[in-house]
Amino acid sequence: MDRPLRYRRILLKLSGEALLGERSHGIDPGVVGRLSDEILEIHGMGVELALVVGGGNIYRGSEAAAVGMDRVTGDHMGMLATLMNSLALQDALENRSVVTRVLSAIEIRQVAEPFIRRRALRHLEKGRVVILAAGTGNPYFTTDSAAALRAMEMKAEVLLKATKVDGVYTADPVKDPSATFLKHVGYLEVLERGLRVMDTTAISLCMDNRLPIVVFNIRVPGNIRRIVLGEDVGSSVSG
Fold this sequence. Notes:
The chain is an alpha/beta fold. Helix content is 37%, strand content 19%. Strand 1, helix 1 (29-44) and strand 2 (48-53) form a beta-alpha-beta unit.
């Protein structure tokens, strides 16, 4: 007998770096394929899924601003990078017969629909995977903030934050071997201790709207499936 789902509608936040694989820049087709296989599996279980993808594997507006580029211009370029990643994911998913829609916060109608909340909700209800590109469409807001905002707009039951580590730590475990793993942490603790879960705007938005966050290691195959089935994976951030 099939196991019951803990979550029936989720928003998955992928960083651009999640698409790198072993590369230093760009998109690794093998990694995109593996992620698409996992999305295919949970989609087949009846989970309604929206994705927000970063663009750091291609371009970061904040880094461009640090070397003298206008921040707004750099952020707009970063939004286009998220759209490139979104199209790569769409192609991989549709090669696996998953019907998808890319909705962009900045209008570029030749390759993506404009983001309209009611339309996005309708796509989810029809069983399509919705890929939300270009962040919020505004400079100075990260794709973490976009993920929190879209999760609320899409009425997601949980925000899944994909990372390269097993969850939330007191420090970066790659740089600090003494970092302690935190299985459960509150929103306020994340903000007060400056834990690098998501940016403060995203955490505050989730806190104000009581949206739980699960931080997990995307490099472990099957983790997304385990989470939607209610297994204790990664770290939870809640009230």
